[in-house]
Fold:
Amino acid sequence: MRNVGILGLGVYLPSRKLTNADLAKMVETTDEWIRTRTGIVERRIASKSEKTSDLAIKAGKDALKDARISADQIDLIVVATISPDSNFPSMACKVQKAINARKAVAFDISAACSGYLYAITTAKQYIQTGMSKRALVIAAERITSLIDWRDRSTCVLFGDGAGACVLGRVKSGGITADFMQAFGEQGDLMRVVAEEARHPLEPDKDCAHKLPYVVMQGQELFKVAVNSMADAVVAVLKKAKLKTSQIDCIVPHQANDRIISAVAKKLNVSKEKIFINIDRYGNMSAASIAVALYEAVKSGRIQKGDNVVLVAFGAGLVSGANVVKW
Ligand code: ACO
Structure:
């Protein structure tokens, strides 16, 4: 089997910050409630003119630069997103056009917060089978455009951003194990409502004029998130033939600091081994792990030779994990 590894990383974060104090002026909430219940202090919000594809293109270009690979050497582009500019063209085709990657196959993946890991695992298979040589994998979300800003139970949680990586063949190590799971039967725990009613043939007076927005059952999701992320780590470590004591760093999806603490406790892993940046960005769906991995590597938290575990859980419901020998 060919070894596939991460050749470069990229990131793009919108400059506008929305703090807890800003939110307290919009809905009935406090900085104290948001910090203690979620760990979030501030999040980034895309400007009116910034589309998801703009975030994706900037992160993708940054990853190519980091990998020192030109766009014409890329033959696969996969973008993970649940907040595309529109249903089509795909974000991946928009990236292809913007970077002029003429030889690339391009498509999007919809797996919510697990999207980056689903995209990495998919692109890895293309490279392992010889179908592709080098892939640009991007996670980009403008998820705040799907938020009801009057609903305090959801609007405090999310932020916008994008991260990316270039995948290619490596001599040893790289992405050594993958795990993916789906629990469609629990999909109603988090969903977008009113989306299908935008232009109905027979308008329903209750929802014809509503914009799509996120609804979720927070407490139920919390429990499933803890259990499915812990289970995904155990499953992927088994595939990689590693013990939890051999993990140097876990980069989890950043939905809630208390979810991360509960996963650490369940796995009997010190929280110091877990990279956390939710305080600065909130939940960026697929982009959360992409940005966290970038920051963990660029800050020196992840070093060459480290065993890194990426683990995600998200709407769908879907979970996933990868082991990367850095
Ligand atoms: N400010 C102040 N009070 C609030 C707020 C707020 N922003 N939001 C809710 N409350 C209130 C509630 O109304 C409730 O009041 P009540 O007791 O008078 O009824 C009280 O706070 C407690 O509400 P809970 O929902 O029980 O609070 P909880 O401790 O469960 O925290 C949270 C809520 C943060 C949403 C938590 O359940 C959570 O993080 N769940 C997981 C969510 C998640 O992971 N979502 C994304 C997964 S998929 C993806 O990422 C795409």
